[in-house]
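task queued by scheduler; priority normal; single chain, no ligands, no partner chains; default sampling; output format set to C-alpha cells
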Amino acid sequence: MRKIIRRIKWLEKARLGAFVKILENRMAILGIIILLAFAFSAVFADFISPYDPLHIDLEKMLEKPSTKHILGTDELGRDILSRIIYGTRISLMIGVISVIIGLLFGVPLGAVAGYCGGKIDNIFMGITDVLLSFPSLLLAIAIVAVLGTSLVNAMIAIGISQIPVFARLVRGSVLSLKGREFVEAAKGVGATNFRIIFSHILPNCLAPIIVQSTLLIASGIIAGAGLGFLGLGAQPPTPEWGAMLSRGRIYIRVAPHICFFPGLTIMLAVLGFNLLGDVLRDVLDPRLRMLKARI
C-alpha cells in the first residue's frame, strides 16, 4: 500500500514538474495565449463578433480599416473581422477533427503492425508507404475530388492524409517497447495480445503521440486553408480563412487588407500550435532534455 501511495505521489510530482517547465518557457506561454485567444473567439463568436459575417453591404465594399470596421470590408462589404472570428470555428474544427481521424485509424494500425511484425507489418506498412509517397495536400485534393467538395469531405481527406504519419510514429514506438520487461511480464501472466498492446504498450507511447497531434493540428489548419483556397473546402458564403484568401487575391492591389488579415490569422494559429508542440516535445521527451543539458 505504501509503495502505491509513493508511486502516486511521484506521478503527481512529475506532472507538476512538467507543468512548471511549460510555464517557465516564454515561447510556450506565447503559444498558449495565442491558442486561448483563438479558442475564445471560436466559442464566443456570436457575442464578440461586431457584425453578421454574412451581411452584404455593397455601399461599403473594399473599405479600408477604420473605427467602424477595424479590419476593413471585403468585395461585398462584409466585415472582415467578423468573418475571421467565425472562420476560427471552421479552421480549428478542421485541424482537430482531421487529427482525430488520423489517431483513430493510424494508432491501431501502427500498433498492430509493430507488435505483430512479419506479413502483417509488411502489408500495413506497404499501404502506409503508398500513402506517404504522395504529398499530404495532393493526397487530400485527390480524395476530395473523389468524395466531392464540402467541408466534411475536406476534413475526412485531411484526416486520411495524416493516418500514415501516426501509423509510422506508433509503429516505431511499439518496436522499441515490445521487448521491454513489463511486456514480457504481461505475457508471463497470460495477458492477451490485445491487452498488451492497448493496456501496456500504447500508454507508454502517449508522449510522442501528443506532440505529433499538436503539430498535425497546425498542418491540418494549413491543409484546410489550402483546400478552401482552391475551392475544395468550405463553400461560399461560409467564412473560412482559405476561401477568404482566394476571394481577396483578385483585389490584392486595390485592397491588400482583404488578403493580409486572413493570412496573418492563419500564420498566428499555426505558430501557436507549433510553439506549444515544440515545448511539449522538450518536456515529454527525457532523452531530448538530457541532450540539451549536455550541449
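post-processing summary
- The chain has one domain: 2-53+77-294.
- The two ends are 41 Å apart (CA to CA).
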